[in-house]
Amino acid sequence: MIDLHTHCFFSDGELVPAEHLRRVEVLGYEAIAITDHADSSNIDFIVPRILKAAEDMNKFAETRLLAGIELTHVPPQLMAKLTQYARELGAKVVVAHGETVVEPVRQGTNRAALEAGVDVLAHPGFITLEDAQLAAQKGIFLELSGRKGHSLTNGHVAKMAAESGAKLAVNADAHGPGDFLTTEMARIVGLGAGLTEERYDQIRSDMAAFVHSIR
Ligand SMILES: [Zn+2]
Ligand SMILES: [Zn+2]
User: Fold this and answer.
1) Domain CATH code at residue 115
2) Which ligand neighbours the alpha carbon of 146 most closely?
3) Number of domains in the chain
4) How many Å lie between the centroid of ligand 1 and the Cα of residue 38?
5) For 10-63, what is each residue's pLDDT tens digit?
């Protein structure tokens, strides 16, 4: 199992990175990204903290911790600047908080995030086919969310990915220990969005290839 979108207590999650990592290690995870909510105010605080955790704990854990960030409710005009800044700070996984139907995310956020070249567009709501095509072109993951509310449009996202050829990722968007997806629950999220078993297996190998490409 790999998850590219989770939160620890550096934003609104519950766990210190060490426990966060341990919780998924016992679930047999290969890798997990901690991607706390950030904007201009805290991005330079969070990324180095998670990098520090990863540097120490990756020596002793079966699960690889990846330092990431989730650019959250930032104006679309700032998306490119903050994506670049996240990478300069050393973030390995840049997630954008997409246009979920359960929050007033600014219109244009999906597009700006894709143009900025994030790694994962989280819960992109009613993403357009044009935007899904841009994701496909740029190799950016569209997310099927395991989180209540955000998951309402998973079926639509899966359909847009199928029509455009965009890659999909199944992520928990976990905020606490009860939120991590088991292998079986992640499969249910995928199949529940209408994917075939074959397509779901493709997701797992696309996510693994991405993780292996990170130095
Ligand atoms: Zn959150
Ligand atoms: Zn999130």
Assistant:
1) 3.20.20.140
2) 2
3) 1
4) 10
5) 999 999 999 999 999 999 999 999 999 999 999 999 999 999 999 999 999 999
